[in-house]
Amino acid sequence: MDKLEKQDIIDKVTTLLKEIPSSMDVVRKGGDRDRRFRYLATHMVEKAIEKDALIVSENRQGIAILFKTSKKDDNIWKDLWSQLKLVANVTGVKNAMNILKTQKYIKNQRPQEGEYLYCWFWGILKESRGAETQVGKEMKDVFFRTAHDTGLALYAETRGRTNAIVYQRVGFDLFHEWDHPSGDTMYFLKYDPKNPRNKRP
User: Fold this and answer.
1) What angle do CA 186, 129, 107 make, to 5 degrees?
2) Is the dihedral of CA 153, 154, 159, 165 positive or negative?
3) pLDDT digit string (tens) for 126-135?
4) Half-sphere exposure (CA, 13 Å, Cβ side) for 55?
5) Position 49 confidence tier, pLDDT thresholds 50, 70, 90
6) In principle, which of 58, 72, 95, 192 could form an S-S bond with 91, CB 3.0–4.6 Å?
């Protein structure tokens, strides 16, 4: 991926982050908030490239980050420097403490043993959304193919009820709901490639 392609993806992720409730919570209010969103988007895209976890649709309007991970990867000292920079450049200290509390609960809903796939981010730009577009289907097929090829279950969360319905419509199971401190409901979803009701794409 060349520098221009990477910048284009960062620009699009920055735009998408401004619509997502969880990133709206993460990014400190006041001051140069656009710069903070861009810093967060850059961090996410660079981490995705490093872990070979970046998925971009054919028309470049859909972007997702799909990690293969496990509880063992959740090490507080790992990436500590980048986490400290995130606190300084994105969240602020007070916000970071609240995020740590909610993240602990969220991570406890994921497998405590073995590897799994985790959809850290999935966004489609406005002009490519909707049932008549192919971008959502194209990306969903990549997710499910990865789950089938690896034999690993795929986990995702959303605080949007509409998003949760879409996830279920394409083959995810809703396995938990949580009253998020923000006042929203958080929906926890799972796609199990070993479940016979799910068909291989």
Assistant:
1) 25
2) negative
3) 888 865 578 9
4) 23
5) very high
6) 95
- Please give the sequence-ordered ranges of beta strands (E in DSSP) within the chain, or none if there are none: 54-56, 62-70, 115-124, 154-158, 173-179, 185-191
The larger pLDDT score, comparing residue 83 to residue 151, is at 151
Cα 165 to Cα 88: distance, rounded to the nearest angstrom: 36
Instruction: Report phi then psi at 61, rounded to 5.
Output: -100, -15
Q: What are phi and psi of 30, to 5 degrees?
A: 85, 165
Of the candidates 45, 26, 165, 43, which has an alpha carbon nearest to the alpha carbon of residue 90? 26
CA distance 26 to 171: 29
* 79: region left, alpha or beta (phi > 0 left; psi from -120 to 50 alpha): left
pTM, two decimals, is 0.85
Which token pair is 56? 């971009």
pLDDT at site 177: 97
User: Is the four-CA dihedral 22, 133, 135, 115 of positive or negative sign?
Assistant: positive
Report how far residue 47's alpha carbon sits from residue 51's, in angstroms, rounded to the nearest whole number: 6
Residues 160-171: tens digit of each pLDDT: 888 899 888 888
Q: Judge whether residue 156 has pLDDT over 90.
A: yes
Q: Distance (Å, rounded) from C-alpha 68 to C-alpha 191?
A: 14
